[in-house]
Amino acid sequence: MKPSFLVNLFKRIHRDDVPGLAAQLAYFFLLSLFPLLLFLVTILPYLPFSHQDILSVVRSYAPPESMKLIEENLEEVMRGNGKLLSFGIIATIWSASNGINAIVRAFNKAYNVVEDRHFLVARGMSIILTVAMIFVFIVALLLPVFGKQIGLLLTAHFGFSDEFIQVWNALRWVISSLVLFFVLVMLYWMAPNKKVTCLSVFPGAFTATIGWSLVSLGFSFYVDKYSNYASTYGSLGGIIVLMIWFYLSGFIIIIGGEINAVESERKEPNC
């Protein structure tokens, strides 16, 4: 008798050491965060929003203590040499792709496959996924900026009520969730060294989208209302909170990959 889906999933979590992989992802996410933000800040002159718009999107999910750390460091770097950032775009993308590269290794472990792609091919794919995620992140930024203007325009032109604006604002956040879902589908589809169909990764992407949104908002609420890491860790409190958030995010992303791997194994038991 085959084990149930949940039993198989829990066995895989223990076998693949998902908590340990999530800790690795948290480390690489931390290393990738600021290079990624710096890259976005570097291209801001060509985009119709400011660095505060970027931070507002991150602020929607990141814990408050971590946002203070992110904002202070980003402001400090922005006061530095802008030319250095421009010349370092390639190095910045390479550094930011480390997080994607770690996700690739985690997914390969979930599917129990060996990474036999050439180093340059594997790293190139990580860089392409990183650039794609930056593009999607920019789209996610544009939705609130232009979405509000579109909503006001429709209200003024057609005479819609205030309730329409509230519904419109809610729809914009639904679209942001769909953007996150699209990013995860790309990751689950392209990252592992195994041929999988786009539709086959939907269960993991859907679970990770819902799980990550709930965990991020719940953890942010907990830190803001019931916890004070600064009293325990002092000036390191913001970093500790940020690492815990990255750890939970990495855990959810890997769980999505494991769900897809379990589904793949059930459909192709001999593979």
TrEMBL record:
Where is this chain's protein located in or outside the cell?
Cell membrane
Membrane-topology annotation of the record:
Multi-pass membrane protein
List GO terms (cellular component aspect). plasma membrane
KW Ribosomal protein (keyword) present: no
Q: List, alphabetically, the InterPro entries matched.
A: Virul_fac_BrkB
Q: Does the keyword Cell membrane apply?
A: yes
Question: What are the TM regions of this chain, as residue ranges?
Answer: 21-47, 84-104, 125-147, 167-189, 201-223, 235-257
Q: Which UniProt keywords apply?
A: Cell membrane, Membrane, Transmembrane, Transmembrane helix
UniProt-recorded name of the protein:
YihY/virulence factor BrkB family protein
The species is Peribacillus cavernae
